[in-house]
Design brief:
Blueprint: E1 2-16, E2 22-31, E3 42-49, H1 53-57, E4 66-77, E5 80-89
Antiparallel strand pairs: 1-2, 1-4, 2-3, 4-5
Length: 107
Amino acid sequence: MINTIQAHVIGASRYSMDNGVKGAKVTIMQPSAPDNENQLGNQVSTMSAPYEILDQLHAFAPQMPCALELDIEFRASGGKATMHVLAARKPSATGGQQQPASNGDKK
């Protein structure tokens, strides 16, 4: 299932290894949960992405860090659910900061 979230993207990078493995990571920042007494300020998260995501993000590089709309999918990795970015674009005119949720199934 693909979900769309609003995220404050602070950077991205990609890698290509000699064995042919390629990928990328997108780093986002979100405010700490106000009801969590063990966190203050902002928290940083990293999401995996396909190697080509950097090509999409180049258009936004001059504005980074910036708010972007990300299509993500949850994947199992090491026994944990991780977020994998599939696409990035400028946010639509509606909506604010959203957490990963069922904002629409775009299968």
